[in-house]
């Protein structure tokens, strides 16, 4: 168990935005959530999965919907607690810890808000090791773990509980309800045991984001290259440097869909890159060829500060770096690629790991990945 | 308590189609549901509201969605039981009786199916005295009674439970989930006490449909005028006789929306009538002027047999009679007109009771209405 103060929470929020691959919500709002939780409730407890009893019950509180209206509708608060409590009531009050469903500006921090308020710990890990735009896109799905019961709540006091035959149906209903609720709302789902967390989640990803956030902060303080510091910590690769010359974005079915077009600079002068997104960045296309894709992480960062830019904040004229970061090994299994790979998002290409294309080692420095663990290929329950 | 046999159930199904005002599902399917329930479980029990304890818990099982896919997806069964049981679990197994939410080809009969299967009685009444296309359009809403908890289930095994701040939100979420489930699914909602049934429901409407159905059957057997027999029982008025010359119908948000155009015959020769519907018939427009509207009932019937024709079965060339039937007195209060009157459906006209326009007495022969009871004007809870 580790106690986190304000600095650690700020680092986690900043690092989360990098792994959020453009989605997961505004990192500034995430920082606000974390700092508010700290100021109101004091230091927050982070535990490792090893510290969980096998029988402990853990749930995932999160925000679901498009990040665009989140900016207007923030702060969330009451509805997060309501979603959590609706789920916990279903589980007869047995929830002992919470965990982020994904790593992203907001959704990394939401569990800290709930945990601080209820005096329970956050488990160091998540279910993606990144952010993804659909609720079935979690490593838990590869292990046949269901999202149900799945509680959803809005700021008016409405709540909905789903029991679905698989996690694809959970996504479908949750998306419709989120749209009805104003395109953004609070969710709590995927009740799991400590044993299931140890087997099926992505472990250590909160600490990983903290290391990334600290590296950015220290580089900026020392006036050093923040991008280089991120590359070092994440074993990432700079896949493009350029200027944003066009952004198309629309909100549909509760997602921010679109693309950013970049004109190359420095070594990439004369080339063009298009980054397509569905809340999160899905593919990076260089001069017509896909050079990086899900499940690997594609993050667009401010070229100077190394701050990640979420899809809703992309603007014409920004000078940016596109960074590729290897995904968690669970996503590189056949089950992982089938679930969250390019074909799921209708890109008819084979997934090529980032390092194979860009000549990296493929060793992942950050997350304590269990590369040998091969999930069973059941999709949902 | 009265025991109903196959003949009574067939009469109820036929009469329900008349009060279904074009919606509420295919009367043939409703008859199938009833007869199947009878054949499988024997005679069915019908109780009056007076026979209910004030504390008895009653719920409303129903089908929600567009009647068009119902034809393909029938028979329903498993999902109806699942919706009911999901709700009953929420209510700690305390449900003692069921009641139709509306009168219509299918939804009048669904409670008999559930009741027969579980060995509980059906209460003689409903919450509309007709059919309406939205779940908040029930007399219960006028009395501040909420739809929640509201259970929804599909044939795959998915279920959803809504807890909403008012019945308009219940409609919104239920509609979205119904669309996701294939535009039609099973619901169970509006848990009420016996005391609330006595005050806020439309009482006696099952017996009323039975009298209508029997009148049609006896008239046809005696080769007499079935339409005249219906007019007699319902205190209705024939507002048009003609031939269908055009039908427009589309399915949107889980509703069958559209209109039928009729060319006048006999006394109405030279005139045109347009009947607009949203699952149910909403307004009848004669030569450009609205001559009948919700909350009064507008039913299109086969001119020969007196069989009601639901909106999904309207076809070019049918010779029909358009019948107007006075609605339950609860709908004629200010709260009732605000909830289910023409302006709710975006017809910017004042509601004029059918009898005022067509010179009838305004006395209702059928349903035991409580004309003096003025519901409190709260809309939902």
Proportion of residues in β-strands of chain A:
25-35%
What is the share of helical residues of chain A?
25-40%
Question: What is the distance, rounded to the nearest whole angstrom, between the alpha carbons of the first and last residues of chain A?
Answer: 32 Å
Shape of chain A: globular
Q: Strand order, biggest sheet of chain A?
A: 15-14-13-12-11-17-16
What's the number of extended β-strand segments of chain A? 17
Annotation field: number of helices of chain A: 12
Q: How would you characterize the largest beta sheet of chain A?
A: 7 strands, antiparallel
Radius of gyration of chain A: 19 Å
Arithmetic mean of pLDDT of chain A: 90
Low-pLDDT parts of chain A are 361-381
What is the fourth-level CATH superfamily of the largest domain in chain A?
A: CV3147-like domain
Annotated CATH architecture of the largest domain in chain A: 3-Layer(aba) Sandwich
* CATH fold-level name of the largest domain in chain A: CV3147-like fold
What pattern of helices and strands is seen along the backbone of chain A? EHHEEHHEHEEHEEHEHEHHEEEEEEEHH
Using the coordinates above, name the CATH class of the largest domain in chain A.
Alpha Beta
Oligomer: homodimer
Structural domains of chain A: how many: 2
Q: Greatest contact pair?
A: A-B, 18 and 18 residues
Question: Based on helices, strands and strand pairing, what is the structural class of chain A?
Answer: alpha+beta
């Amino acid at each position: 168990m580790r106690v986190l103060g304000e600095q650690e929470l700020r680092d986690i929020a900043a690092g989360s935005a990098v792994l959020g691959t453009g989605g997961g919500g505004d990192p500034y709002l995430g920082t606000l959530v974390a700092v508010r939780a700290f100021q109101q409730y004091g230091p927050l407890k982070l535990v490792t999965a090893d510290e969980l009893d096998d029988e402990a019950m853990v749930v995932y509180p999160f925000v679901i919907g498009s990040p665009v209206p989140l900016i207007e509708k923030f702060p969330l608060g009451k509805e997060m607690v309501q979603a959590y409590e609706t789920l916990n009531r279903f589980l007869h009050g047995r929830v002992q810890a919470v965990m982020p469903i994904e790593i992203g500006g907001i959704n990394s921090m939401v569990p800290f808000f709930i945990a601080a308020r209820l005096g329970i710990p956050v488990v160091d890990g998540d279910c993606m090791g990144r952010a993804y735009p659909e609720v079935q896109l979690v490593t838990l799905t590869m292990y046949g773990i269901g999202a149900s019961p799945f509680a959803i709540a809005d700021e008016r006091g409405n709540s909905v509980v789903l029991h679905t035959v698989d996690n694809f149906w959970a996504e479908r209903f949750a998306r419709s309800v989120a749209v009805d609720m104003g395109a953004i709302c609070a969710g709590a789902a995927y009740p799991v045991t400590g044993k299931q967390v140890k087997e099926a989640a992505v472990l250590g990803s909160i600490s990983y984001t903290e290391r990334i956030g600290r590296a950015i902060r220290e580089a900026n303080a020392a006036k050093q290259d923040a991008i280089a510091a991120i590359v070092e910590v994440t074993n990432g690769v700079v896949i493009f440097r350029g200027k944003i010359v066009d952004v198309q974005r629309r909100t549909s079915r509760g997602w921010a869909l679109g693309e950013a077009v970049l004109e190359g600079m420095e070594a990439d002068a004369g080339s063009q890159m298009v980054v397509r997104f569905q809340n999160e960045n899905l593919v990076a296309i260089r001069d017509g060829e896909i050079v990086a894709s899900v499940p690997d992480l594609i993050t667009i960062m401010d070229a100077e500060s190394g701050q990640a830019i979420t899809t809703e904040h992309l603007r014409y004229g920004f000078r940016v770096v596109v960074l590729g970061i290897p995904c968690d090994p669970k996503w590189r299994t056949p089950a992982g690629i089938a679930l969250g790979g390019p074909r799921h998002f209708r890109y008819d290409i084979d997934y090529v790991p980032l390092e194979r294309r860009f000549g990296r080692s493929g060793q992942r420095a950050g997350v304590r990945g269990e590369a040998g663990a091969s999930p069973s290929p059941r999709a949902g329950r």
